[in-house]
Amino acid sequence: FSQDFERFVIPENCKPAQVLNFLKWPENHLTTNRKLHFSIAKEDDDVHFEIDSLTGDLFLSKELDYETASHFLLQVVIKDYNNNPPQNNTVFLSIDVEDQNDHSPYFQDHFVVIGIEENVPVGTLVYTFNAKDGDGSFLNSKIQYSLEMSNMGKNPFLIHPSYGTLTTAFPLDREITRSVILTVSAADQAINLTDRRLDSLAAKIVILDINDNSPSFTSSPLSYVMEDVEVGFLVHHIIAKDPDEGRNGQVTYHIHSGNENKAFVLDKITGLLTTAQLLDREIQNCYNLTVMALDDGSPALSATQVLTILVLDVNDETPIFLKQLYETAVCENQDPGEFVLKVEAVDRDAGLNSLLRYEILPGTGYEKFKMNPDSGELLTAASLDRETQDVFSIKGNSVKYLPSRSSTAQLYLTVLDENDHNPMFAKTQYQISVREDLEEGSAILDLFASDKDDGLNGEVMYSLIDDTFGAFAIDSLTGSIVTTKALDRETKSQYTFRAVASDCSTHLPRSTTVMTILIQDVNDNVPKFEQSYYKASVWEGQSPKTDIIQVFATDLDSGLNGETEYSILSGNENATFVIDSARGILATNTVLDHENASSYREIASSHRLVLLASDRGTPSLNSTATVLITVLDVNDNPPVFSSPEYHIHVKESIPVGSHVTEVSANDCDAGTNAEITYAIISGNDRGHFHLDEKTGSVYLMKTLDYEDTMKFILIIQAT
C-alpha cells in the first residue's frame, strides 16, 4: 500500500459540476486494461467535491467561498482490482481556494455629519472612516480611501489613503465656509483594475463657530448735529456687524471715552445715539466719542470706532475782541496811510455767522486815523507830531448784522519820537566863581540842555571841547561839572571852556555854551620868609633905632590873605629889638653891650630872636624865621683873674717839671679883645718857676730847698 500527496489551487469562482482538469492521475493508474476504483474517504465531511469512481475525475459539487473555507484536504482512495487481493493506494489532495474579488467594500453609514471647530490647527484629526471588505485575501480586502468635494473650491481636508483618517489640510474659517460636503470613497486593491470594487458615502463637515471675529463697524465715523437741537435728538445710528454666529455674533454698544460731560446717551442694543443735554458749539464744536462694539462670546471680543460729531453753528454769539486794550506805537512824521496795528475780534459762531466789520468810534484825535472795515487794519490818515500829541486813545468797534451784535475795544497809540529836535542850553554862556579850596570831585554847576524829543532821541549827552587843564570834567549824562583835581588860584585863577550838549543824532546841530570859572582866593598860602635862618651883627654901644637887617616874607594869596605883617615872636627880652611890622626892618631899641649879651640865641635859647610873618586872612596864617644877632665887641673891658690871690703848697721833694698850679683870668670882650697872655712880673728872680703864657699853667724849673727858701711870692700879670 502506497500513499501520494498532491497540492493544487482552484479559483473560488469555479462552478459546481465542473471537472477540475488540473487533477492528473499518474499513467500507471489509468491503463485501460486495469480495473481501478476511485473514492473519497468517507471521514471527510466536506461535500464540496465529488470523484468519478471509474475515471477518477474530480469535480466541484457546490460553490466555493474563500471567506468560509479557503483550504481543503481530500483523501482519495484508489483500489486496484487487478491484484489479488486488491491493492489500495491513497492520494492526499491539498486544495487551496484562490480568493476572487467577489465582495465590495462597504461603509456602515451612507451619510455622516461631522462637526469641527474652526480654530483647530492644521493636521487636526476630524474623523476616522472605517469601510469593511468581505474578501479574504490581502489585496482584495485592502481598502484605499479618497476624497471628493461637492464644489470646485479648495478642499480644506485631507484623508489618509490607508487609515481613512480625515485631517485638516488648511486653516478653517466658518465665516468663509460654513460646511463642506465630501464624498468619501473606499476601494479595494484587486490586482486587476477591472475587478476592483468600491463604495462611497457622503460626509457633511460642519465648521463649528468659535468667537474669533471682532465686531466691525459699518456705520459712518462722522456725524453732524445742530447746536440748538433738543435733548433726546437722534444724532447717529451706530451699526457694527459680527460674522460669528449665535452669542458670538450678538453685538452691544457702549461709549468708551469722549463723553465725560455726559452730552450723549447710547442705546446699547439698538446703537441709537441721542443727545443727553443741550449742546453749545461755541463751548465744544466737536466730540470724538470712542464707541465700542462688544460681542457676547466667551471671551468677548470688541472693536472700537472714533465717532466724530461735528456740532453745526447757529448764529447766537456776540463778537469779542481778542484784547480789550490794544497798545502799540507809531512813528511821527510819516506820510498818511502808515500801518498802525490790526485789531481782531472773534465771533464764536462759524461761517457766515462770524463775518464782522470794523470801525472807529468818534473821539478825540480819531480823525487822524482810518480803519479797514474788513481786515481791522488801522492806518494813519494824517502825519503825526509827537511833540504836539504823543498819545491817542480811541475806540474800535466790531459789528455783525442779522441780528446786529457789536463790541468795542480801546486803542492806546503812542507816537514814537523821531529825532527832529536838537538839545538847547538855557543860556549861551555861564560865569561862576568857586573857591579854590573845593575838594576834588566837587560839583560846581549842573548844566541842563532840553531836548523836545523822547527816549534816546531826547537823551542829552554832555561833553567839554576845550582844554580845562585837567581841572574840570562833565558828567555825560547829568551835565554836572565837577572838579577833577585840587584848584589853586595862585597857579591859575580863571578857566574858560565850552560845554556841548548833543543827542544821538548825527545830522542835527549841537548846542554849545561858554563856561567862565573864576577861582576865588582862599587863605591857603603861608607867608614864607626868604630864609628860615638869618645872621646879623651890630656894634655894641650904637644908639637906639639903629637898623640891623631887613627880612622879607612873601604870600601868594591875594588881598588881605596876601598882606604880611612882621613881629618878634620870642627872644626879645627887655625889648632890646624892634621890627617894622610892614617893612620887616629889625632895629635896636636900646644901647647894646656886648659884654651883657654876647650872642642872642647862641648862649641861651631865650637870647635868639624868632621872627613871625603873619597874613591878614581869616584865619591868619604865619611862618617863622630865626635871626641870630651878634653884638660886635669893642675892647672896653680888662682881664680879671678868677681869684686875686692863689695860695699853693708844694713839697720840696717834687721833681723839676712838675705842674704846680694854674691861674685863670676872664675878659668880657670878645675875639682878639678877649685873648689873654699871662706873665710873671716879679718874685721869680732865681727862675724856679715857668708860666705858660697861653694857659696860665705854672711849672717847677729848679729843685726846691725848704731850708733855703720856705715861701715864694709871684706877681702874675694878665694882658
Automatic annotation (TrEMBL):
InterPro entries: Cadherin-like_dom (IPR002126), Cadherin-like_sf (IPR015919), Cadherin_CS (IPR020894)
Primary localization class, coarse: membrane
Species of provenance: Phaetusa simplex
Family annotation (SMART domains): CA
GO biological process, one term: tissue morphogenesis
The UniProt record lists the keyword Disulfide bond: yes
GO molecular function: calcium ion binding
An example Gene Ontology CC term for this record: plasma membrane
Ranges in coiled-coil conformation: none
Compartmental location: Membrane
Occurrences of domain Cadherin (ranges): 2-107, 116-217, 225-321, 322-425, 426-529, 530-641, 642-719
Domain of life the protein comes from: Eukaryota
UniProt keywords, alphabetically: Calcium, Cell adhesion, Disulfide bond, EGF-like domain, Glycoprotein, Membrane, Repeat, Signal, Transmembrane, Transmembrane helix
Stated name of the protein: PCD23 protein
Lineage: Eukaryota, Metazoa, Chordata, Craniata, Vertebrata
UniProt keyword annotation of Transmembrane helix present: yes
